[in-house]
Amino acid sequence: MHLIKMEYRGLNIFDEISVVEVAFDIEASTIHIVDASMTVAPTYNFTKKHDELSEGFLKMAQVLYQKHYMKVEAYSLQQWIDEITWQFYGLGDVVKTYENGCFAKNKVANLQTWSDEALQQANFNPLYIRKGKST
Q1: What is the pLDDT of residue 132?
Q2: What b/e string do you get for 45-78 counting C-beta neighbours within 10 Å, with b at 16 or more?
Q3: I want to staple 126 with a disulfide (CB 3.0 to 4.6 A). Which of 39, 54, 67, 119 is the partner?
Q4: What's the farthest any 2 CA atoms get from each other in the chain?
Q5: Distance separating alpha carbons of residues 51 and 21, to the nearest angstrom
Q6: What residues have CB less than 8 Å from 62, skipping those under 6 apart?
């Protein structure tokens, strides 16, 4: 797993500027996001009873889309987002995965029992799981 890392700054839920760590795995078409301050993290829609992409995430995704960090053929921002696997770390006891327009949740405690190879095959970043950035 070869990652290209960067930092993204945005407003968190308290309207404070905070930093989000973004790591690109070009080969796996996966973007890993460490966001402990709820800047771009998914939000829960209580009416629809599921997670959805936040406004902060869409702003960040627009920047990444325009900068062509992940070269995926897409005709729109939403299509580009849906073509990539997004891993969200730093959300308490779960890692949220956005893939093909849907969210899935994985408990950090369960992922910590996996080998590094198994985590990589499932498109997780072992470093973020092992070092506790997900908790």
Answers
A1: 54
A2: eeeeeebebbebbeebbeebbeeeebeeeeeeee
A3: 119
A4: 39
A5: 21
A6: 77
